[in-house]
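Narrative of accomplishments. A recurring question from our advisory board has been how the design workflow behaves on a single, concrete structure rather than in aggregate. To address it, we present the structure tokens for one chain from the evaluation set, followed by the sequence designed for it. No filtering or post-editing was applied between the two.
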């Protein structure tokens, strides 16, 4: 069944008082249990798509729709989207001085559990769970005691993000892996995180222009995005083709 269904999505941002349309009628369907990738040149609107799906306020949806599990995603508050199982990995994880990482993660997990009508985890049971996950991710347990992302290396931030994702157990993980600061180790951490969750009840949208990432996360489908639309969709071979030949042929075919 169609788990995530986006039809004709249009969105704009206020650019110094002038509305600028960024998403120009985007169609995308992700069935349950599938991992899809979106690749596209810089400025094509990939991050905008992830922000709109996450419910960020500065984007105005001016047309089209986005449904998840049959519900109108765009009508829901960000917290309600999270409760429905949507997880968005932030491209630049926020640093929160003075906020204990374990407490921060437990608050996020319990907010989702509460919204789903599940019992909240007390500090002791949460810590047990979090420790299992940190050792699984080859993270030092020390990371749970530190302030959120403060002084974390790039790789530690990635691990922390994957830790959060694994603790939240989303049914749809949207990852926007931008150009900056992703070395091979970080790509592997992200890929292992996504792959570890793969299964019939988990879908993912991996947004990237790193073809390398898709060597580790082999997607069911690859979509090419340009100028605010999906201009081509295919299997994993599309990523290989893009690495060899670039976006040119797809852009020309779409024009
Ligand atoms: P991508 O992630 O594919 O690189 P983005 O979604 O970040 O693309 O950006 C798409 C387009 O929207 C770009 O032309 C970018 O300059 C523009 N854009 C994004 N955010 C803003 C903003 N706050 N103000 C003006 N233009 C923006
Ligand atoms: Mg960009
Ligand atoms: Mg981007």
């Amino acid at each position: 069944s169609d788990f995530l269904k986006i039809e004709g999505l249009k969105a704009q941002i206020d650019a110094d008082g002038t509305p600028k349309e960024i998403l120009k009628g985007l169609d995308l369907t992700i069935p349950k249990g599938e991992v899809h990738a979106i690749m596209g040149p810089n400025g094509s609107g990939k991050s905008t798509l992830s922000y709109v799906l996450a419910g960020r306020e500065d984007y105005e949806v001016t047309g089209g729709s986005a449904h998840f599990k049959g519900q109108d995603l765009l009508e829901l508050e960000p917290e309600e989207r999270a409760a429905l199982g949507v997880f968005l990995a932030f491209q630049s994880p926020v640093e929160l001085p003075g906020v204990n990482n374990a407490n921060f993660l437990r608050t996020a997990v319990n907010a989702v559990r509460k919204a789903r009508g599940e019992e909240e985890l007390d500090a002791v049971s949460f810590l047990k769970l979090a420790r299992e996950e940190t050792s699984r991710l080859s993270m030092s347990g020390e990371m749970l005691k530190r302030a959120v992302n403060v002084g974390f290396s790039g790789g530690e931030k990635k691990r922390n993000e994957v830790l959060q994702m694994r603790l939240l157990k989303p049914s749809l993980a949207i990852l926007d892996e931008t150009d900056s600061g992703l070395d091979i180790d970080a790509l592997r951490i992200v890929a292992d995180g996504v792959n570890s969750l793969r299964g019939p009840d988990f879908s993912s949208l991996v947004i990237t222009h790193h073809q390398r990432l898709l060597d580790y996360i082999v997607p069911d489908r690859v979509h090419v995005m340009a100028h605010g639309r999906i201009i081509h969709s295919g299997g994993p071979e599309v990523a290989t083709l893009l690495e060899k030949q670039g976006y040119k042929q797809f852009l020309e075919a779409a024009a």
